[in-house]
Design brief:
Order of helices and strands: EHEHEHEHHHEHEHEEEEHEH
Radius of gyration: 19 Å
Number of strands: 11
CATH superfamily of the largest domain: NAD(P)-binding Rossmann-like Domain
Structural class: alpha/beta
CATH topology of the largest domain: Rossmann fold
Strand content: 15-25%
CATH architecture of the largest domain: 3-Layer(aba) Sandwich
Distance between the termini: 40 Å
Strand order of the largest sheet: 1-11-8-7-5-6
Helix content: 40-55%
């Protein structure tokens, strides 16, 4: 069994991003929009701004009140779309009730859509066209590539059908000629699919959801889930029992999470190069 060390790989990717950004002789602007006061969002936003400073990016936070109207948020996005000093825009989720987040994602100029959540970005992804890929799925593929894990012709089981993870991840695996199955809360006999899979990706948010009896010997296990138990962050996978059976496995924390952050800034680099 080998650990897929997302912390190490992301550090190398970010070092390369900084090296490339340093060659670009112009100010690089990244706008982060945060609506409300979600405590988890505060941590994520703070970490992104800190990373901007480390990479020499001009990170700008637009923190809007909980009672912000959707029309005002859309006006801000339009203003940032038209600001030539802003290369990338990220709308932190979740947003307060009453705001249609997909409508807001679609307002972001596809050339600045760092998260890859707009209809244009999603369409480009499924059509195999140039554009931004969602950061968590892209990070998973990058992690597999770093460890030279073959994807072509592999059976892949993704336990998640969200627009953020499951659907874009399926598109990326299909683009690499894998055979993909998407499972979800309505899937019957889940283990029938996981036991056939060469690569299992779980993004459910339930501790110990993936146990050693539902994966096959030598499977590659990617844990995207995040839960908190007694103040500790844990994933979906029963790591202690599953890891001896897996050929490769991601830890939580230190696996997929750092890769997601690295892909945000790799996407910014791509936006600047456009």
């Amino acid at each position: 069994m080998e650990i897929l060390d997302g912390k190490k790989v992301s550090s190398e990717i970010l070092a390369n991003v900084k090296e490339e950004l340093d060659k670009i002789k112009k100010k690089i602007g990244f706008a982060i929009i945060w609506v409300g006061d979600n405590p988890a969002s505060e941590i994520y936003v703070r970490n992104k701004l800190k990373k901007c400073m480390e990479l020499g990016i001009d990170g700008k936070l637009y923190h809007l009140a909980e009672n912000t109207k959707e029309e005002d948020l859309l006006k801000l996005i339009e203003k940032l779309n038209n600001n030539k000093e802003i290369n990338g825009i990220l709308l932190q989720s979740p947003v307060p009730a009453g705001i249609n987040i997909n409508k807001c994602f679609n307002k972001i100029d596809c050339r600045k859509d760092i998260d890859g959540f707009s209809n244009v970005s999603v369409g480009n992804l499924w059509l195999g066209e140039k554009g931004f890929s969602s950061c968590t799925p892209k990070g998973i593929i990058k992690l597999l590539d770093y460890y030279k894990i073959p994807i072509e012709s592999k059976n892949v089981c993704i336990i998640n059908r969200s627009n953020i993870v499951g659907k874009p991840l399926a598109a990326l695996f299909l683009e690499r000629n894998a055979t993909v199955t998407i499972c979800h809360s309505k899937t019957k006999n889940l283990s029938d699919y996981t036991k056939m899979a060469d690569i299992v990706i779980s993004a459910v948010g339930k501790p110990n959801f993936i146990t050693e009896d539902i994966i096959k010997e030598g499977a590659i296990v990617i844990d995207v889930g995040i839960s908190r138990i007694d103040g500790h962050v844990v994933g979906d996978v029963d790591f202690a029992k599953v890891s001896p059976k897996a050929s490769y496995i991601t830890p939580v924390p230190g696996g997929v999470g750092p890769m997601t952050v690295a892909m945000i800034f790799e996407n910014i680099l791509d936006a600047v190069r456009e």
